[in-house]
Amino acid sequence: MLKNMQCLRRRALKVLRSPLSTATKGNVENVHETKLTSEAASNDNKYTDEEKEKILKIINDGNIDDLLSYDISKVRANKLISWLKHNGALKDLNDILNVEGFGAKSVIKFYQSLLNEKDPEMRKSKYYLKLSKSFITPKMDIIQRLNIKSCVAVRVGINHLAWARLELPPAGAETPSVLTHWQQHDVVEKKLHLSDLVQRCLYANHLIPAGDCYVLENPPSVQASNKPSNVEQKNVNIQKAQIIAMMGLALALRTQTNWGDVRSDYSKITSPFTNVFYMRRFLPARLFNYLVGTERVSSEKTVINMMRTYYNVDEHHGDGKDFLTIRNNVQFSPELREMFSSASPSNRDLLSQALLLNLTFVRLILFEDKQTIATVTGLSRKVG
Length: 384
Known about the structure:
The protein is α/β, with parallel strands linked by helices and 384 residues long. The chain is 51% helix and 11% strand. The chain has 15 helices and nine strands. The strands form two sheets. Strands 1-6-5-2-3-4-9 form a seven-stranded mixed β-sheet, with helices on both faces. Strands 7-8 form a two-stranded antiparallel ribbon. It is globular, with a radius of gyration of 27 Å.
């Protein structure tokens, strides 16, 4: 019985590994050719000569950033640009079907976006909005975004936590956000047992002020390695990830008061919105220019420069060049400025990172500031 099963298995593997016959290959090619022909006929009949000319001009003259402002994924846009470089400009609408990843549905959707969007600024705004949704996990509902009046960012270090709470200006008001709470707290001095780490995190959660939403940075990834130095770094990353997970859960529980409706199928609980968001790593460093390669450098200087703005020195708002961007800036109280200046260099850096994490979240997600989005995505040269 066992020999028969082994024999059948060998035969099955032999069939699977054998190349397609000439007849089979021909059938596959005929099916593919028939599909392209039917899709091509559909495209030919769908558009007028003027529309065809417009579509071809946009595709052949555009670069990757131009194409991404239309309804096309980044993967398809890159494949299209690569195909154009190797094969030259599209001469017919159906030529795009020769590009890998393009089928009838995706082409029609893409072509319609090329014809419908007439205003470049409108396209750019939609593109920035699409980009901003990829900066955090989970995505934020627009109703929730409009109702957020305060935000708390929690920055997790190796052995420390720091948080910064911002009160946001009213919609349309040209006033800075106000820093109301800014604190650093030592969590651990060494590698702790998980039960001890839970107690430390719960105590830290008790210290963190309330806000309409909370933001943390995505935890570092952990990669397997046999090198002693990498193993030590791996342990550090694991502990940071544990702290981030515990703090995220503790903060989320602040608004989830009724757990009676939670079932084994992970149904949604009574609160319609989540209040804890995780931001992609290195976005604050990229926005405020304290990233060298993949390593952060001190962010203290950036915060000190923020403290030197006129509304942090004088109670009266005078004429300032940054009035139009004042909404994106921060007002510090004298007490918090004094606390920051008296802190140790390492604590000042952690406090700075907590504040800049909050500001990045506010500018990218809550304010959807175009210049900020352009800066972190490398599109600042295209913002007029």
